[in-house]
């Protein structure tokens, strides 16, 4: 502990014991993970009014989870999905993209005391296919080259790197859903 070198306002005159500055560190603020820590902030891209009961029913049927999930209102049209274990939450994150009533669902993992605004939730992972690749040109470098114009590369389906797999390379990309989705792209292979 250290002594305060700054002066207190006159209406808040502290004695020497009260004026000590206490160091705070290495102290856990909780007793491990709680059910509140297994949450996701959810935004559904729709203009319609959502009925929470329908959403709960639809997502319980769509998601194969060990425990039930519940939704509560968060703010500004956002919802909070409450999971009872981290495994269930992880399954939902890994299974993206999800939709409800033909409307895309955008998820964010709240960490600490973050307060999410509706316009912050705009990134969703999608699987994409790259077609018409000349023989011998499937590579992680090609995937990175294509993704540079579209979004951020999350992963490459390793099986699709093999020429015997099929007619395309499959990649997972983090897209900004506030921008129009690009339908295609032409690539000129200079070595052909």
From TrEMBL:
Chain coiled-coil ranges: none
Every DUF4283 domain range: 37-108
Domain of life: Eukaryota
Cross-referenced InterPro entries: At4g02000-like, DUF4283
Pfam family, one: DUF4283
Name of the protein in question: DUF4283 domain-containing protein
Organism expressing this protein natively: Cannabis sativa (Hemp)
